[in-house]
Amino acid sequence: MTTGTGAGTTLVVGATGTTGSRVTAQLATAGHRVRAASRRGTPVPQAEPVRFDWYDPATHTDALTGVDRVYLVPPVGDPDPAAVMLPFLRQARAAGVNRAVLLSSSAVPEGGPAVGVVHRELPGLFDAWAVLRPSWFMQNFTGTHMHALGIRATGTIHTAAGKGRVGFVDAEDIAAVAVRALTDVRSPDSDLVLTGPQALSHDDIAAVVTEVTGRPVVHRHLTHEQQCDRLAPLVGREFGELLADMDLAIADGAEDRTTDVVQRLTGRPPHDFRTVLIRESAALG
Fold first, then answer.
1. Which CATH code of 1.20.120.430, 3.40.630.30, 3.40.50.720, 2.50.20.20 fits the domain covering 9-199+254-277?
2. Which stretches does DSSP call E strand in 175-235?
3. What's the pLDDT tens digit per position in 111-130?
4. Residue 70 phi, psi dihedral angles, 5° rounding
5. 146: which residues sit within 8 A by CB, 6+ positions away?
6. What is the model's pLDDT at position 1?
7. What 3-state class would DSSP assign to 256?
8. How is the chain split into domains, by residue range?
9. Which of 161, 187, 201, 224 has the fewest beta carbons under 10 Å from its own?
């Protein structure tokens, strides 16, 4: 692909989150103008902060002023994000946005549950678009995800995924693909399944974390019902059941794959888990 001129302004929704912060930083470093949207309008280096709340339409107009492309992180934990996202996307189109890159998930196909509904509608709303469908984040084990919290608190990762393997992917690689999808002259106009270089089980992950950090970590195998009961107080029963269902899909092999998308769009191979863990191990204390 040919890199664009960067003449436009990109609105990054979720600019303080796991992928949004990295998309913002990489765009700004490359010289692109960025409007960094978050619920508090938090200042972000080399970007224009703006307050944005999916559930507060009064924040949407200002966020879209002067913008011609958007990076979209759906509202976290909402089982029906289309209800708030589609009205915003129609407003964005009317305001002059012509390119949209949506963060979805490898576990959610076009037309599937939750963000899958937004995925289905996106090509009809924008001339240039991409849907990023990354596998599970490597940062789930180093950041603020419940897996990382469990590692810090008890040295335990809890899943109902059994011995199923996942092509865990680095959020830096997701951001690098997003930047290309947002700024290349020719947009992907497709959905892109992003993975790391190898598929690993949660037992494998626990072993690598133990080796790299010196902190004993184990993977506790739960039943679907046990995982639902564990997640319900944390994220609500409906979303907890959805996450537990995704664990079962992993156990059945749904995520046991790797793709060449990171290499193809960025020109370099994706980062492996050990490399990312060494880079970010300080976050585990």
1. 3.40.50.720
2. 190-194, 200-201, 218-221
3. 998 999 999 999 999 999 99
4. -135, 145
5. 158, 234
6. 38
7. coil
8. 9-199+254-277
9. 224
